[in-house]
Amino acid sequence: MSAPQAGPSSPPPEAQGRHELAGLPDWLYPAGFWVGVAALTVGLFFPRVAVWGVAWVGAVPVLAAVWVAVAAWRGDRRLSAAALAALAGLALVFVVKQFIR
Predict the structure, then answer these.
(1) Structural domains counted in the chain
(2) ∠ at Cα 98 (95, 51), nearest 5°?
(3) How many Cα atoms are found within 13 Å in the side-chain-facing hemisphere of 90?
(4) What does pTM read for this prediction?
(5) FRET pair for 85, CA 20 to 30 Å: which of 2, 10, 47, 48?
(6) Residue 96 and residue 84: Cα distance in Å, rounded?
(7) Is residue 2 part of a domain?
(8) What is the DSSP letter of 18?
(9) Are 16 and 61 in contact (CB under 8 A)?
């Protein structure tokens, strides 16, 4: 019997040991989530801290996009450009929101 051939949908051999999704390390979202949970828990007792917890929960995807844009620049420019486009879209939302108010 021969070894199974890698099909077009299977990851390359050097990427099989890595546990990353779209350039993100596997620890980034869980760490961001638990920091947010901790900040929101502290916000239960100190309401002024709750604003920071909510801001952190909103900042985690932005930090992830910045991470991907910087880390993937050498390896996968299309992924990096997509992350930069997402950040530009978010900035555009904030600019347009100022005109709506």
Answers:
(1) 1
(2) 95
(3) 13
(4) 0.69
(5) 10
(6) 18
(7) no
(8) -
(9) no
